[in-house]
Input
Amino acid sequence: MKTAKLGGLATRVLDVLPDDTGPALAVVVCHGFGASGGDLVPLAPAMLEASEKLAGAARFYFPEAPLDLSSIGMWGSRAWWMIDMDALNRALADNTFRERARNDRPEGMLEARAKVMKLIEEVKEETGLPTSRIALGGFSQGSMVTMDVAFQLEENPAALICWSGTLLNEDEWRERGKLHQGMKVFQSHGRQDPLLSYKWAEDLRDVLTESGADVEFLPFDGPHTIPDEGIVRAIALLESALDK
Output
């Protein structure tokens, strides 16, 4: 594994390809709010070990979110954008949180989008791959930023993986979704998720489907996490992207 600066973000890069072999598929994976930059890195060796097909073709990129949360006592933790806890608590108290959240673009989302989009452009330059050979994925807040980015691209990414995400920026996502018919999406969500409601995941699934995406939805009995089956299904989606 090496670390590079891509899109202005410290990015861990991992593959098991021979030194003289470039990837046929790049996979950009973004961690969630409050995690370290290396939180999801163990997914790469697990996926590469489980799939000979990916091991011979894929390179993984794990960017570190731009915001350092040490100032609020979360040492070593990062975020793509800050969460206004006071506003969140007020919205929860008056039962307006969900409608506000699904229709709002969080402050800082545009900046996060720009950094990840620049990272994708630099990955394309480095690898020579087109957008259609760049897969995007993430967990929680990381899945929200990669989904937002996917809708801004000039063509569909190779795949989009959403582990425990939720619906934000609905109007824009619906509008941009018209330009991304057939986008391959895998989405998983726990029925007992205490942070991002399972019902909200269903809302996201429905918006994606209504916008023309090809969505595989995996509900599971569990909390805010990535289930083993969620990794197995993600591997299958990435393998299928190599067959295009």
About this structure: The CA atoms of residues 41 and 62 lie 7 Å apart. The longest strand covers residues 184-190.
